[in-house]
Amino acid sequence: MNLGLKDKVAVVGGASKGIGKGCAISLAKEGVNIVLCARNEESLKKTAEEIRGIGVEVLTLCVDMSSLNDNNRIVERTLLKFGRIDILVNNSGGPMAGTFFDFKENDWDKAHNSVLKYTMRMISLVTPHMKKNNWGRIINITSLSVKEPAPTLILSNIYRAGITALSKSICKELIKDNITINNICPGAFKTDRAIELMEKVAENENITIEEVEERSIKNLPLGRYQEVDEIGDLAAFISSESARGITGTNIQIDGGISTSLI
After folding, report:
1. What is the pLDDT of residue 204?
2. How many CB atoms neighbour CB 244 within 10 A?
3. How many CB atoms lie within 10 A of CB 168?
4. How far apart are the C-alpha atoms of 189 and 129, rounded to whole Å?
5. Torsion from C-alpha of 68, 69, 74, 75, nearest 10 degrees
6. Which of 40, 78, 157, 225 has the most crowded Cβ, counting Cβ within 10 A?
7. Closest by alpha carbon to 155, among 117, 194, 103, 91?
8. Whether 12 contacts 59, CB under 8 Å
9. Does residue 1 carry a pLDDT above 70?
10. How far is residue 241's CA from residue 2's CA, in Å, rounded to a whole number?
11. Gyration radius of the chain over CA positions
């Protein structure tokens, strides 16, 4: 499908694997040049080679998304290479699993910096350049926990919900400059994050991770884990001109898991 995105430039967080990689690949297939941001240099190189094979330009940046210096470097290096930023995909690894009483103050600070503050900072850094071009797309990868808080994901419940509130708070101002901001709420995708959560359940219940996975799949309406390209294709559509009036939304892609009405 031609979504009219050829030669746009997208900055994608957590892009060396999982959901971030899925978004980067789907955008690249639409002709978008990609800035891959992640911590693991080896994974970044492999993903970059794969995406260059699609036929677009790729800039790889080995960065810590919770670092102010690295956030600034992402924007500076992107502008130096491409001269523009059209699409921002905010995607960071989820904070540690656990309940309210499992965490110390430092854990809360770390989650705040890596999830909410990183997102706030990147939006603040890229929007002036989007406004200059009178066009932009901001996509935040959040979680179903913003619709239905999970008992053992207290940090994610709070800080990802903060991203939802932020997006809704600024969407009216941004749309005046043809900039949309939307949140994608993934369901069950077998990413490193999902495996980490299954390991936590296995440890708590003294069973194997294979048993946890088998049980999880049985409880999924779709009967399987979803593939990251499903989120990628959604991100590409939201980035397109066809979605120019969609903003301030939380779009779940969960295979029917959520029972929330809104």
Report:
1. 87
2. 13
3. 15
4. 33
5. 80
6. 78
7. 103
8. no
9. no
10. 11
11. 18
CB proximity list for 49: less than 8 A, separation 6 or greater: none
Contacts of residue 83, Cβ cutoff 8 Å, sequence gap at least 6: none
Using pLDDT thresholds of 50, 70 and 90, give the confidence band for residue 114: very high
Q: Beta-carbon neighbour count of residue 68 at 10 Å? A: 13
Backbone φ, ψ for residue 26 (5° rounding): -65, -40
Q: Which residues is 45 bridged to in the sheet?
A: none
CB of 181 within 8 A of CB of 171? yes
* Domains by residue range for the chain, with CATH: 9-187+227-253 (3.40.50.720), 190-225 (no CATH)
Query: Alpha helix (H) ranges present in the chain?
Result: 18-29, 41-52, 68-82, 105-111, 118-133, 154-175, 192-205, 209-218, 228-239
Q: Under 8 Å CB-to-CB from 231, ≥6 apart: which residues?
A: 19, 22, 23, 141, 184, 186, 189, 253
